[in-house]
Design goal:
Elements: H1 8-28, H2 31-38, H3 43-71, H4 73-92, H5 97-111, H6 114-125, H7 129-157, E1 191-193, E2 200-202
Antiparallel strand pairs: 1-2
Helix pairs in contact: 1-7, 3-4, 3-5, 4-5, 4-6
Length: 230
C-alpha cells in the first residue's frame, strides 16, 4: 500500500545503484576533457570517438531485450557492470585514438542496455504495481542526483595537467611544469634542460626544439619534461 516501507532488497538495490551512478558521474562528464586535454586527441576525433560509443549503445540495446528474457535481469546487469569497469580500465591506459576507441565502444555498448536491465530488475524485486511506481520515481531521482554528485567530486579532483587525477591508473604521462616567465603551461617537448645556454639533453627517439634564452639561474624556463611512470 502507498506509504508502506519498501522491501529490504529493493532498498539495497536503490542504494547500490546510487553508489554506481556516483562513479559514473566521475567519468562521463569528463570523458571529452580527458580525451582532448589529457590525451591530446583533437576535438573532432574525440567527438567521433564518443559518437562511435553512442552508436555501439544503440546496437547493443536492440539485443538487450532478448538477453533479458533468456538470461535474466540479474545476469545481464552483472555483465553490464563488469563491462563498464573493464571499459574504464582500458580508457585509463589509452594514449591515442586507436587505443581509446575499444574502451569507448565497450562503454557505450554497456551504458545503453543498463537502463532496461535496471527497470526489469526493479520490476522483479517489487511486484506490487503501486510500490513499483514509487521505486521507479525514487530510482530516477537518486541516480540523477548521484551522477551530479559524482560530477562535482570529479571536478574537484580532476586536473588536465595531471591525467593521473582522472579515475583509473594513467601510466607514462607527461608532467607539466609551468612557464616561469609567463605563468602558462605549454605543450611538452619531452626533453630536459641543461643548466647553461640553449643545450638540452635529448630523450631517445624525440628531437628537442630550440630553447629560449636561459633564465637568471641559467635554466631555460619553458622546458617541460617527461617523467616515466607518472
Amino acid at each position: 500500500m502507498p506509504g508502506s516501507a519498501l522491501p529490504r532488497v529493493t532498498r539495497l538495490f536503490l542504494a547500490g545503484n546510487a553508489v554506481a551512478m556516483t562513479g559514473n558521474g566521475l567519468v562521463i562528464a569528463f570523458t571529452l576533457i580527458y580525451l582532448h586535454q589529457a590525451r591530446a586527441i583533437a576535438l573532432p576525433v574525440a567527438g567521433l570517438l564518443l559518437t562511435a560509443g553512442a552508436a555501439a549503445g544503440l546496437l547493443a540495446v536492440t539485443v538487450s531485450g532478448v538477453l533479458l528474457d533468456r538470461l535474466g535481469a540479474r545476469q545481464v546487469l552483472t555483465g553490464i557492470i563488469l563491462g563498464q569497469a573493464a571499459a574504464q580500465v582500458l580508457l585509463a591506459w589509452a594514449h591515442n585514438a586507436a587505443t581509446a576507441l575499444p574502451a569507448l565502444l565497450l562503454y557505450g555498448a554497456t551504458w545503453a542496455p543498463m537502463f532496461p536491465a535496471m527497470a526489469t530488475m526493479i520490476a522483479g524485486l517489487t511486484p506490487d504495481p503501486a510500490a513499483q511506481q514509487r521505486v521507479f520515481a525514487i530510482n530516477f531521482t537518486t541516480q540523477n542526483a548521484a551522477i551530479g554528485i559524482g560530477t562535482v567530486l570529479g571536478a574537484a579532483v580532476a586536473n588536465v595537467h595531471h591525467p593521473g587525477s582522472f579515475p583509473g591508473p594513467v601510466p607514462g604521462q607527461r608532467r607539466i611544469v609551468p612557464d616561469l616567465r609567463r605563468g602558462a603551461d605549454l605543450p611538452a617537448p619531452l626533453c630536459a634542460p641543461r643548466p647553461q645556454g640553449r643545450a638540452a639533453s635529448r630523450l631517445p627517439g624525440r628531437a628537442c626544439p630550440p630553447w629560449p634564452a636561459a633564465g637568471p639561474r641559467g635554466i631555460a624556463p619553458r622546458c617541460l619534461h617527461r617523467i616515466p611512470g607518472v
